[in-house]
Design goal:
Two copies of one chain form a homodimer. The first copy, chain A, is an alpha/beta fold. Chain A has two domains: 122 residues, Nucleotidyltransferase, domain 5; 146 residues, 2-Layer Sandwich (Nucleotidyltransferase, domain 5). Chain A is built from nine helices and twelve strands. In chain A, the strands form three sheets. In chain A, strands 3-2-1-4-7 form a five-stranded mixed beta sheet, with helices on both faces. In chain A, helix 3 packs across helix 9 and helix 6 packs across helix 7. The longest helix of chain A has 19 residues. Chain A is globular. The relative contact order of chain A is 0.16. The interface between A and B is large, with 42 and 42 residues.
């Protein structure tokens, strides 16, 4: 059975992914648009959807999963805005408003990119069938998302999982890159942290580089903290840094070591996983959000 | 308006608190019973309730908030049992069963002591009116509880907040007391950790003792981790260790230092608080649970 036709936008700092879709097997139209000025970017999004809807029919919902910080609070005066980003031209920008207007009165959903990705995985991917799950995206920053009892957890500017505290590895003398906290999770384990610590981009470091021992150490702590604070049954690790094929197994090993038999972790291999929808988790998550 | 009459039991490792109550102002009968063998302890609880019900009328619900580990999963074969505790005589003991039988067919609730305490605070205390809140009890162990969107968060044996990872203070050479993890939160900041580190019980250490700098450092990390992973609006710190009057202010200071402006923490004094119901949070929480 086909779902609703959704106009989905995965809104990133460097590019927008736009799609008309009814679900994973039914991506009817699809385009990548560079994120330039808000005016130009939104114009090109509207143009794409106008063109494709004239061929494929009208979207029944609009769903946006965006980079942040963004105002997700329905009813707030700046609902749908990108708020205080350092990204040129985008600070205090209404992203939802002009798109909503272009679509007329159809229902809209406005979420963070990580919430969309987790929702996609919970609908069609690795977290399907589980009540409680979490998603970390490990890339330019570290973002997190949480589903409890089947619902995305919301709060003012939360969750901010990238900024949790972690214990420094004894072999790590790096001070971290977070401008607020230095050595919080994002400060020590994001892509820019790896690059600054080792003087090379993450993707240029070989699989046996000591960088990955540190990375696994920090990501495992993040997993264990989520696991002790919430009853998650799946923790999905996505984002560019997780493209390192050796890394997932190293994180799982470290999670087992840290938990040390306390939680009934029969198999960290089933608990900590990659996104099944891969790099499409975000855009498909928007489609899933638009269908509810 | 009076609530339902609830037979409430706060079940602790050293004593049981039993009450017939309709709410904070209406504790109709109340007794403390030492926790000896299961048989004797349960017998005395039943005796108390029989006697008081014959005077004050029948309870409409039975609610138990217990020490653990306990099986909280409705429908499980060992639902209502204390499970694998090292406490003599209590391992694999059916606590709910004989009490439920003594009360005939009235509705029952079986929760952890910390869940009950948080529910009490969310109903009548410091977390009243907030959608998301957490409770730490800092005493013989460190227990945690979480409410998201107004509901207690459950999972198999979760949350296990006492076992989250924390960063060691540079002045702390103590290895910790947790038999699973050594230096997890409970291993470094529970009452027994304080006693073993300093050779004195927590309540015997003066207010300006360096113990409290370490304690605030660890509890603040716990608060910040909960705050980054969930959107809690109140974090309640209860338990014997929090009876140290200077400690709350020290934790708040440390939370502000760690957050360092990132989250919109206008006032850590409103975020991190003591239980308003004080040491009655647990038993009143049972009353609240029995009324839903």
């Amino acid at each position: 059975m086909s779902g609703k036709m959704v106009a989905a936008v995965e809104s990133g700092g460097t590019k927008m992914v736009a799609a008309l879709s009814r679900g994973p097997g039914e991506i009817i139209a699809h385009e990548k648009i560079p994120t330039t000025t808000p005016k130009e970017t939104i114009y090109r999004l509207v143009e794409f959807f106008d063109r494709e809807q004239s061929v494929h029919g009208k979207a029944e919902a609009l769903a946006i999963g965006t980079f942040g910080p963004a105002d997700l609070e329905v009813g707030s005066a700046t609902y749908g805005f990108i708020t205080s980003t350092p990204k040129p031209d985008w600070s205090q920008t209404d992203l939802l408003g002009p798109l909503r207007e272009a679509f007329g009165g159809i229902p809209v959903v406005f979420e963070t990119d990580v919430n969309a990705a987790l929702f996609g995985e919970a609908t069609w991917g690795a977290a399907k069938g589980f009540k409680h799950s979490a998603y970390f995206t490990v890339g330019t920053g570290i973002g997190g998302s949480l589903i409890v009892d089947g619902s995305l957890v919301h709060g003012s500017g939360h969750p901010e999982m990238g900024h949790m505290r972690v214990t420094k590895h004894p072999n790590d003398n790096f001070g971290g890159v977070c401008s607020f906290h230095g050595d919080c999770l994002e400060g020590l384990a994001s892509g820019p942290a790896i690059e600054k610590r080792w003087g090379k981009k993450a993707e240029e470091l070989p699989a046996d580089h000591p960088a990955w021992v540190l990375e696994a150490y920090y990501l495992a702590q993040a997993c264990v903290n989520v696991l002790t604070i919430t009853p998650v049954e799946k923790i999905i690790l996505g984002g560019g840094v997780m493209h390192q094929e050796q890394l997932l197994a190293m994180v799982r090993q470290e999670v087992i070591r840290l938990v040390n038999g306390y939680l009934k972790l029969q198999d960290a291999g089933e608990l900590v996983v990659l996104p099944q929808l891969g790099d499409h988790a975000g855009i498909l998550g928007c489609v899933a959000l638009g269908q509810i």
